[in-house]
Amino acid sequence: MTRLLIRATLALCGFIIPAAAYAHTGAGAPSGFAHGFAHPISGIDHTLAMVLVGLLAFQLGGRAVWLLPMAFTGLMIVGGILGIAGVNLPMVETGIAVSVIILGASVAFRIKTPTAAAMGVVGLFALFHGHAHGAEMPGSVSGLTYAIGFLAATASLHLVGIGTALLFSQLDQRRGAIITQVAGSVAALAGVGLVLGIL
Q1: Which of 1, 25, 140, 148 reaches 20 to 30 Å from 134, CA-CA?
Q2: pLDDT tens for residues 1-47?
Q3: Distance (Å, rounded) from C-alpha 98 to C-alpha 165?
Q4: Once rounded to an integer, what is the mean pLDDT over residues 99-104?
Q5: Which is it for the CA torsion 109, 112, 114, 116, positive or negative?
Q6: Chain centre distance of CA 83
Q7: What percent of the chain has pLDDT above 90?
């Protein structure tokens, strides 16, 4: 099972990069799915937050491995609906940047948050990410296929985070944990850069 997850993670990494490139070539008219899939992986803020959810889920272990990604995805749908409907949500960009800082710091310091509390935190942040996805949906595409696209990308990034942490732990458990914490630290600093407008 471990080897299967690692292989799936590597395969996803190989798929996500060309998929994002295709969606931004400008050749033809990308489908709603392509637009939706590209949105989370075309911005460092979304990508970092979603991978961090996977890393944090792995660190917490147990049911958190699947409950955190589910909480994020579920609340992101709600945020996406609000964005598509034009409902205003204050400080969306700030909320997204702060999510990178908080999630990155949680991973960096291996904060053992209870699963229910962690679900609440990632769910809150997911509202901001989902709203941004929905509000930026092109008017020429189907809302349903667009939503399926950004949900697929989000789930893929969560799996990349979980699979990467698992891969590190399989190579060397102690060093793998340190590498994961360093990654969280770098992500948190990137989040600060996003808040300050540097990135």
Answers
A1: 25
A2: 455 544 544 444 444 444 444 444 343 445 789 889 998 998 999 99
A3: 22
A4: 98
A5: positive
A6: 18
A7: 71
DSSP one-letter code for 42: S
Q: Which amino acid is at 141?
A: V
The Cα–Cα gap between 20 and 191 comes to 22
- Tokens 């960009």: give the residue: 93
pTM of the full predicted structure?
A: 0.87
Rounded-to-integer distance, Cα 175 and Cα 159, Å: 21
- Token reading at 79: 């945020």
**Six-digit token pair at 16?**
């996500």
Sign of CA dihedral 59, 62, 66, 67: negative
Torsion of CA 102, 189, 191, 58, to 10 degrees: -50
Given a contact cutoff of 8 angstroms between Cβ atoms, the answer to whether 11 and 154 are in contact is: no
- Give dist(CA 65, CA 54) in Å, integer: 7
Report how far residue 90's alpha carbon sits from residue 98's, in angstroms, rounded to the nearest whole number. Answer: 14
